[in-house]
Design a protein that fits this description.
The protein has 253 residues and is of the alpha/beta class. 35% of the residues lie in helices and 16% in strands. It is built from nine helices and ten strands. Helix 1 packs antiparallel against helix 2 and helix 4 packs parallel to helix 5. Bound molecules: S-adenosylmethionine. The site of S-adenosylmethionine (SAM) has 20 residues, from strand 3 and helix 5. This is Rhamnosyl O-methyltransferase.
C-alpha cells in the first residue's frame, strides 16, 4: 500500500533547497503549514471500532439549503447517477491510488454510474490492470452507457449470500476494495465476503452507519473481532466522519 508522502517529500525538498521561503513571509510557508495539518501518515491512523465515537459531520442539517443537499448527495458522472458526495469521491480517488486495488466489488449498481466511475478511476490510477464487479438485483436499471472494458455487472439478490458466485470470488486478484452500497444484510454479507478477503483489503460500508443504531454498533463489533481497523484518514479527512461511511472505511489487518 502506498502512503501519501507527497507533502513530506515537498517539505524535505523545500527545507533543503529554499529555507528562505519557509518563513511566514516566504512564498512556500503556507504549503509547509498544510503538510503538518494533513499528516495522513501519522502512526495512530488506524483505530479499533470500539475506540471511536459516533459524531458525524455529515448530518443533513449541515447543508445550508436544499439545492446544496441535492447537489452533494446526487451527483452524476458522464450523465449517469452517481450517488456519492464530493467528499467521498475525493476519498475514493485517493484510496484507489493508495491501495492500487486489483479488484473492486460494488454492491448496489443502481444505474451503473458509480461502477463506471470506479472503472475509469481504476484504469487511470492503478499500475496493474484491475476489474470492477458490480452487483444488483435490479440490473435492468443499468444504463446502456455504463460500459467499460474493466466493468462487469451481475444480477444477484444480495439478501442471500448463497447467490454470490464463489468461483468468481476465489479467482479475483487482491488487493480488493469492497463497497457495500446496497443496504441489505450488510453484516451477513460482510461475514461471507470476509472469507475471501486478504490482509490489507478495504471494505467500505456506505450510508447505513450514518444511523449508528444497535445493528451498526453490534455489527462493527463483529468487524473488530474479524480483525478490521477503521482507517481514520478516510473517515476524518474533511472533519470527523464527514463521509457517507462514518466509522466504516475498514482495513483488514
Ligand atoms: C443506493 S443504491 C446504489 C447506488 C450506487 N452505488 C451509486 O453510488 O450510484 C442501492 C442499490 O441497491 C440495490 N438493491 C436493493 N436491494 C437489493 C438486493 N436485495 N439485492 C441486490 N441489490 C439490491 C438497489 O436496486 C439499488 O440499485
Amino acid at each position: 500500500m502506498r502512503l501519501a508522502s507527497g507533502y513530506k517529500a515537498f517539505s524535505e525538498t523545500a527545507h533543503k533547497n529554499y529555507p528562505d521561503q519557509l518563513t511566514p513571509e516566504g512564498n512556500l510557508g503556507w504549503a509547509i503549514a498544510l503538510s503538518s495539518v494533513v499528516n495522513a501518515d501519522r502512526s495512530d491512523r488506524f483505530a479499533r471500532p470500539s475506540a471511536r465515537g459516533w459524531t458525524s459531520s455529515l448530518h443533513p442539517k449541515i447543508f445550508p439549503n436544499r439545492s446544496t443537499k441535492v447537489g452533494v448527495l446526487a451527483l452524476t458522472y458522464k450523465g449517469l447517477m452517481n450517488v456519492k458526495t464530493p467528499f467521498d469521491l475525493a476519498l475514493y480517488t485517493r484510496l484507489i491510488w493508495e491501495l492500487q486495488p486489483r479488484t473492486i466489488l460494488e454492491l448496489g449498481s443502481l444505474q451503473g454510474g458509480s461502477g463506471l466511475w470506479f472503472a475509469d478511476h481504476l484504469s487511470v490510477l492503478c499500475e496493474k490492470p484491475g476489474e470492477v464487479h458490480s452487483f444488483d438485483l435490479n440490473s435492468k436499471c443499468i444504463h446502456e452507457n455504463a460500459k467499460h472494458p474493466l466493468l462487469t455487472f451481475h444480477q444477484v439478490d444480495l439478501s442471500d449470500v448463497a447467490n454470490f458466485d464463489e468461483n468468481l470470488l476465489k479467482r479475483l486478484p487482491h488487493p480488493w476494495l469492497v463497497i457495500d452500497d446496497a443496504h441489505v444484510q450488510i453484516f451477513s454479507i460482510f461475514s461471507y465476503l470476509n472469507h475471501f478477503l486478504a490482509s490489507g483489503d478495504y471494505y467500505v460500508i456506505e450510508d447505513n452507519p450514518m444511523n449508528a443504531d444497535k445493528e451498526i454498533i453490534d455489527g462493527l463489533q463483529l468487524v473488530e473481532q474479524s480483525g478490521f481497523l477503521i482507517d481514520t484518514y478516510y473517515t476524518d479527512a474533511f472533519g470527523s466522519n464527514l463521509t457517507c461511511a462514518p466509522n466504516a472505511w475498514l482495513r483488514k489487518s
